[in-house]
């Protein structure tokens, strides 16, 4: 279970015991670099590093097969690249209001950069906090990283359930909310064994607002993948 940008493993604290009890599965949560108890890594945030960290952590735990990734928001990018590199390891995914490749056209990237610029500039002016340093690191190579991500495809051999929030991360921007929903639909339509589920009434924090829905979709994926 991998939380979104700026969030650590504690994001899942209410779901983990319920999911373990319901499924009997081993549940793994972790803090990506710079989050929670994990060390910061200097320089721009790179998805390749996040994928390498996840790979190393699973290998250390002896987990090399039958993995179902549950990935929220920014962690959808990690899930995409990890699944492409380790199709033999990942048996299914539940992408919870996740960043998906279809969203990141040049036009959308420009819109998102413009929306975040004031916050990033404020963070640059005060690099004393871990949160601000993380924000600056994420913004540093945002444009080339997401242009590359837009060209990445999900492997057809790995099923995916996409949960999209009713309100999306862009409650105040109808145009961006529309693009977010359309990207989720386009992702599902682009390959086999993909399911789209809408968390009606939910904010971007679907695991908080609609925990039963998230748990139910994870349980379905576990049951389907044995």
Automatic annotation (TrEMBL):
This is Alpha/beta hydrolase. GO terms for molecular function: hydrolase activity. Residues 4-214 form the AB hydrolase-1 domain. Keywords: Hydrolase. It comes from Streptomyces phaeolivaceus. The keyword Hydrolase applies. The keyword Nucleotide-binding does not apply. Gene3D superfamilies: alpha/beta hydrolase (3.40.50.1820). Pfam families: Abhydrolase_6 (PF12697). The lineage of its organism: Bacteria, Bacillati, Actinomycetota, Actinomycetes, Kitasatosporales.
């Amino acid at each position: 279970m991998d939380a979104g940008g700026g969030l650590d493993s504690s994001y899942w604290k209410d779901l983990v015991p319920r999911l373990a009890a319901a499924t009997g599965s081993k549940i793994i949560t972790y803090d990506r670099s710079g989050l929670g108890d994990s060390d910061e890594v200097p320089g721009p945030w790179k998805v390749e590093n996040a994928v390498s960290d996840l790979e190393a952590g699973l290998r250390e735990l002896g987990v090399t097969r039958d993995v179902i990734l549950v990935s929220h928001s920014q962690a959808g990018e990690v899930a995409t690249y990890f699944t492409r590199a380790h199709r033999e390891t990942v048996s299914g995914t539940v992408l919870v209001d996740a960043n998906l490749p279809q969203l990141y056209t040049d036009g959308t990237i420009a819109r998102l950069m413009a929306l975040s610029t004031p916050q990033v500039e404020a963070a640059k002016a005060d690099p004393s906090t871990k949160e601000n340093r993380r924000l600056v690191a994420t913004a540093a190579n945002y444009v080339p990283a997401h242009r590359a991500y837009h060209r990445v495809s999900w492997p057809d051999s790995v099923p995916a359930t996409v949960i999209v929030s009713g309100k999306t991360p862009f409650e105040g921007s109808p145009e961006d909310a529309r693009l977010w929903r359309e990207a989720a639909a386009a992702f599902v339509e682009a390959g086999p064994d993909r399911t789209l589920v809408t968390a009606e009434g939910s904010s971007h924090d679907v695991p908080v607002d609609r925990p039963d829905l998230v748990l139910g979709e994870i349980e379905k994926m576990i049951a389907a993948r044995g």
